[in-house]
């Protein structure tokens, strides 16, 4: 072995890419397990260690630890090969090879996984010494993963990928969060000491306590430092879960039970926790929160169970994503139509709340903006809604009530929007030219092109328009008092209500039957943008026509609905991990306990990030326009710096 390795270390000889070496069992057998043989083994390992270390600079060198034996099955001429002797030889090899370099970590890797596999499978051995074929196949598969994954870099839950090096932007982010944590701790200590000095003291003459007047209001600086301190700790957890290779990941395997049993469980919980709504209008705040909540929980179960491989489930989940976008169209149109508030403060508040977490994750996790595709989608659609309604002539409810002509004007605006959507949907070249322009390309490119963004946008291209149109029709009917929205009252007269309910149930079931009979994903995706609104409208009517259904909501689902955006984004790294391709394993060997613990942490983190975002939005986006413009200038400078640093990083990578 020494002679063979010595030849490979010579410069003129072609070197192997991978070398797998190991020895011990034969030494134990030939020398009958004597202590002298162990001493000689140590000397031999010591003599080849420098050669292995030298070779490891150009090749991958693995020293295979000896597998345990099943002593009861060993033949008489192998009885001296005991697990005690094997452990002694393995310990000798590990200690010598790991100490072969004085000033740095050894480049020779210990291939100990085969030993772990053998501990599970040695009882299946025929002679107590040689492992079954399945064990060798598993070891070989892991070895191939070790060598290939660092080159192929698969985006799933596979093992053995080297940790990506920290980028300059990540290092700067780490420094910022570290300074925020230190700053908050200093602020906290000073504040605490001040509080102690201002404690009530006893008046010696009267024996009564004097209470000093203390200003208990929290300063914006304290909120800012506290928020960034908490966010820094949370981001450290994100990085450890999905970048540091600290925790294991496992692949998803879909079965019907892993998807449908949790669905039934959460539906039962949701029905159990029900309360009366504060108002009984169609799609009131509690109801939309409830809608977002149960949809988000279903989507989470869909992702963790790997149900995308089952086409009927995939098609129904596509409707849930479309329903989120429908709510975007409905909610923002209603706000602008009723309030008429087209000010910059409203726009900045919405954009900040939508994008804050994603921007931070893009920096910390070194991922492109388009990777979190849903946020770019709702952001772009919000801007489309805003521009459509804010452009001249600005038509709002107050103006339209005086003259029906304005209603016609708004419908023309919506018709023009639909025309633009159709043009971009069927003109991929024009779409890609628009979003390939710098700096838009930095936001919407994924793997060097904007095809993924075009595909995502096109998949639900009409549903936001449908949401805006529904809001317009509903608010027009509400203004003319066509609807009965009192508590317990059906939305229309009994005959019309029953007829619409029947049509809605039939439409809902018809869509489900069609989606369940889908055979080709591409064909069904092509029809989805036009037909998804059928099931969405059917659900809205079923949920809102009966007065008793409109008067109650599930507080369980509504609670999750309030943090639905954070849940959707956080799942990428601290619940699913491996960028959604795998499942995070915090507790190996116990899947049920692991999913309980990781889910609890995941939900707590999402809730905390929601609170942090709300707190920071109040400080960073003030209502005063002059202050807001200064903040926007700072934010613009920040993004310019980010673009420059990103360009430098891209050049260094290439």
Automatic annotation (TrEMBL):
**Principal location:** membrane
Q: Which UniProt keywords apply?
A: Glycoprotein, Membrane, Transferase, Transmembrane, Transmembrane helix
Question: Is Cell wall biogenesis/degradation included in the keywords of this UniProt record?
Answer: no
Q: How does the record say this protein sits in the membrane?
A: Multi-pass membrane protein
Q: Name one GO cellular component term.
A: Golgi membrane
InterPro entries noted in UniProt: Cas1_AcylTrans_dom
One Gene Ontology term from the biological process aspect of the record: carbohydrate metabolic process
Q: Cas1p 10 TM acyl transferase domain: which residues?
A: 153-632
Pfam family, any one: Cas1_AcylT
May I ask which residue range the UniProt record assigns to the signal sequence? none
Organism (species): Panthera pardus (Leopard)
Say which family it is in: Belongs to the PC-esterase family. CASD1 subfamily.
Does the keyword section mention Zinc? no
Q: What is this protein called?
A: N-acetylneuraminate 9-O-acetyltransferase isoform X7
Q: Where in the cell is it found?
A: Membrane
């Amino acid at each position: 072995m020494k002679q063979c390795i010595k030849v490979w270390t010579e410069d003129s000889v072609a070197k192997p890419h991978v070398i797998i070496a190991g020895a011990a069992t034969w030494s134990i057998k030939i020398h009958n397990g004597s202590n002298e043989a162990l001493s000689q083994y140590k000397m031999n390992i010591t003599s080849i260690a420098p050669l292995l270390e030298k070779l490891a600079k150009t090749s991958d060198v693995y020293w295979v630890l000896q597998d345990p034996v099943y002593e009861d099955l060993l033949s008489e001429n192998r009885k001296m090969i005991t697990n005690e002797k094997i452990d002694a030889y393995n310990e000798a090899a590990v200690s010598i090879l790991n100490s072969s370099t004085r000033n740095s970590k050894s480049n020779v890797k210990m291939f100990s996984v085969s030993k772990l596999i053998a501990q599970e499978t040695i009882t299946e051995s025929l002679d107590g010494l040689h492992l079954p074929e399945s064990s060798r196949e598993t070891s070989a598969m892991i070895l191939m993963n070790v060598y290939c994954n660092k080159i192929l870099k698969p985006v799933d839950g596979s093992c053995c990928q080297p940790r990506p090096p920290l980028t300059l932007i990540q290092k700067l982010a780490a420094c910022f969060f570290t300074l925020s944590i230190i700053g908050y701790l200093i602020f906290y200590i000073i504040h605490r000491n001040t509080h102690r000095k201002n404690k009530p003291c006893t008046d010696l003459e009267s024996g009564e306590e004097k209470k000093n007047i203390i200003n208990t209001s929290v300063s914006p600086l304290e909120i800012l430092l506290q928020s960034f301190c908490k966010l820094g700790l949370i981001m450290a957890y994100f990085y450890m879960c999905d970048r540091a290779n600290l925790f294991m990941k496992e692949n998803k395997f879909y079965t019907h039970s892993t998807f449908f049993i949790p669905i039934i469980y959460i539906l039962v919980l949701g029905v159990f926790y029900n309360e009366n709504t504060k108002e009984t209008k169609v799609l009131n705040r509690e109801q939309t929160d409830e809608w977002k909540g149960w949809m988000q929980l279903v989507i989470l179960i869909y992702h963790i169970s790997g149900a995308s491989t089952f086409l009927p489930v995939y098609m129904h989940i596509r409707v849930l994503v479309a329903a989120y976008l429908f709510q975007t169209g409905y909610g923002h149109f209603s706000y602008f139509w009723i309030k008429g508030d087209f000010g910059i403060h409203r726009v900045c508040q919405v954009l900040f709340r939508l994008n804050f977490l994603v921007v931070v994750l893009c920096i910390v996790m070194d991922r492109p903006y388009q990777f979190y595709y849903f946020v770019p989608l709702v952001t772009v659609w919000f801007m489309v809604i805003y521009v459509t309604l804010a452009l001249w002539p600005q038509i709002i409810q107050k103006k339209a009530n005086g003259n029906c002509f304005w209603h016609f004007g708004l419908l023309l605006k919506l018709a023009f929007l639909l025309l633009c959507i159709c043009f971009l949907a069927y003109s991929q070249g024009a779409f890609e030219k628009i979003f390939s322009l710098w700096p838009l390309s930095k936001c919407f490119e994924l793997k060097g092109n904007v095809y993924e963004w075009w595909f995502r946008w096109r998949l639900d291209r009409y549903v936001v328009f449908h949401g805006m149109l529904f809001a317009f029709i509903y608010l027009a009917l509400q203004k003319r008092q066509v609807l009965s929205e009192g508590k317990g009252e059906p939305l229309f007269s009994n005959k019309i209500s029953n007829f619409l309910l029947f049509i809605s149930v039939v439409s809902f079931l018809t869509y489900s039957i069609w989606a369940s009979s889908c055979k080709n994903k591409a064909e069904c995706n092509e029809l989805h943008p036009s037909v998804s609104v059928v099931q969405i409208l059917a659900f809205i009517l079923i949920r809102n026509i009966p007065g008793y259904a409109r008067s109650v909501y599930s507080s369980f689902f509504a609670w999750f609905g309030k943090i639905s955006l954070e849940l959707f984004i956080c799942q990428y790294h601290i619940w699913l991990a491996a960028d959604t391709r795998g499942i995070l394993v915090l507790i190996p060997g116990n899947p049920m306990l692991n999913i309980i613990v990781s889910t609890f942490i995941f939900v707590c983190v999402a809730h905390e990030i929601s609170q942090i975002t709300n707190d920071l939005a109040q400080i960073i986006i003030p209502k005063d326009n002059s202050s807001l413009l200064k903040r926007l200038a700072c934010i613009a400078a920040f993004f310019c710096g980010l673009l420059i640093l990103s360009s430098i990083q891209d050049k260094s990578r290439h």
